[in-house]
TrEMBL record:
InterPro entries: Epimerase_deHydtase, NAD(P)-bd_dom_sf. Residues 6-210 form the NAD-dependent epimerase/dehydratase domain. This is NAD-dependent epimerase/dehydratase family protein. Pfam families: Epimerase (PF01370).
Length: 317
């Protein structure tokens, strides 16, 4: 049994902690609040992970340190990510734990064709450049022999995630309620989504496999479906009628952006919905044998989570 330290108790951190604990590993979950899943194999620790000394103290003896954190909102990325990333690097260097970074696809920027891991990190928007910088900083430390690092990149999440933290789950929640679904982009373009348990499985696999270190890996994900088809599948599984979907006109989004920090940040990412957004994770499957969870299971579990959350909210009201 080895010690694994996870920073962040969001959907990915929680799924990873439970998965590792279920397999018999020792898990220490670090968050500002001391929260996380109530699991007998998970020790929850209250600490500020951007405090390098504190994080190092909690990481000593660990085989791996996982960055599963995420600032609460896009406007906070520029402020919160650099100190947290720096603390992670220092803790990994001082303890010898393999640093495993959970990441997205923003660093690539707009891409024509499938998104594979050999593409350059050529983002031009602030969030994409920040994610690219974080990886380059870590990779330089790895190549200098100071740390061992690997990064796992996923597309938009689906699964047990709060609707406001996933565009597709948000759309599905609207459809479940019988509302018209207003989309940021063309609902008839294919768009890969990544199931949270598959992210956790990939993180666990690359942490202790030397073949993974010094490289980035994509999470195997179900075949890309159009947003309309995916939301329709989820609505049907939730027991709702076929949803009506309307694309928000781009001029309207631009007009509203000055009055909404969130919309301003989303504006940098609208390219993802203007063309097919397809993740290629073939290298991960070839190397580690990880395959995506079947779409039918993804739909079933996501719908179950949505319905359970709705029932819980109704009881609390």
């Amino acid at each position: 049994m080895a010690l694994h330290v996870i920073v962040g108790a969001g959907p990915v951190g929680t799924a990873l902690a439970c998965q590792l604990a279920d397999s018999g590993e020792e898990v220490r979950l670090v968050t500002r609040s001391g929260g996380g899943p109530e699991h007998p194999g998970v020790a929850r620790v209250r600490a500020d992970a951007s405090d390098a000394a504190a994080l190092t103290r909690h990481t000593r003896g660990a085989v791996a340190l996982y960055n599963c954190a995420n600032p609460p909102s896009y406007p906070q990325w520029q402020e919160h990510w650099p100190p947290l990333a720096a603390a992670m690097l220092q803790a990994a260097e001082e303890t010898g734990a393999v640093l495993v970074i959970t990441a997205c696809l923003y660093g690539y920027g707009p891409v024509d064709g499938p998104i594979h891991r050999d593409l350059p990190l050529a983002a031009t928007d602030p969030k994409g450049r920040l994610r690219a910088w974080m990886w380059q900083e870590a990779l330089e430390r790895h190549e200098a022999g100071a740390i061992r690092v690997t990064e796992v990149r996923a597309s938009d999440y689906i699964g047990m995630v709060k609707p406001l933290n996933s565009y597709l789950v948000f759309y599905a929640d609207q459809a479940r309620r019988g509302r018209t679904v207003f989309t940021f982009g063309d609902p008839d373009l294919p768009h890969t989504v990544t199931y949270i348990p598959d992210v956790a499985r990939t993180l666990a696999a690359v942490a202790t496999d030397e073949r993974a270190w010094g490289q980035a890996w994509h999470v195997p994900s179900p075949p890309a479906r159009t947003v309309r088809a995916a939301v329709t599948d989820l609505a049907r599984q939730c027991g709702a009628r076929r949803p009506s979907m309307v694309r928000i006109p781009r001029p309207l989004l631009r007009l509203a952006s000055p009055f909404s920090p969130l919309l301003r940040e989303i504006g940098d990412l609208l390219y993802q919905w203007d063309r097919p957004y397809i993740l290629d994770a073939a290298a991960t499957t070839r190397t580690f044998g990880i395959e995506a969870t079947p779409w039918e299971e993804v739909v079933r579990e996501t719908a179950r989570a949505l319905n359970a959350r709705s029932t819980a909210s109704a009881r609390a009201a």
